[in-house]
Amino acid sequence: MGEVNPPSPLANTLKGTCPRCGQGPLYKGPVQFAAACRECGLDFDSFNVGDGPAAFLILIVGAILTICAVVFDLKVSPPWYVHLVWIPVGLALTVGGLRLAKSWLIAQEYRHRAREGKIVS
Asked: What does the alpha-carbon distance between residue 18 and residue 109 come to, in Å, rounded to a whole number?
């Protein structure tokens, strides 16, 4: 049921679509995968993206926000409550980045036919 030329992983990442057909949505919530593609039926539950993207994003977004907050505080010296703006900024960067990272990872898993490792006895 797959296409001869599936969409590129970058296109799937940016659109959040199925890596096989490029049509069906990959997500059913902000960062939760749908069970399967509504268009071609590809089972998204068979892919394992794990917590790798979340761990990297927490470190990267945390470092960026901390640096920005310190530089902003040293340059402007605002009242403490102005720093509350970093909460929604951090949330937006994390959720947006998580969608992109998970979409890219599942597109790569599909493209390279990555599956769980098995021990051969």
From this structure: 12
On whether the CB atoms of residues 60 and 67 are closer than 8 A, the answer is no
Residue with tokens 């399967």: 36
pLDDT, one tens digit for every residue, the chain (121 residues): 544 577 888 888 899 999 999 898 999 988 888 999 999 999 988 888 888 888 889 999 999 999 999 999 999 999 999 999 999 999 999 989 999 999 999 998 888 887 766 666 6
Question: Is the full-model pTM beyond 0.90?
Answer: no
Dig out the tokens for 4 from the structure: 């001869």
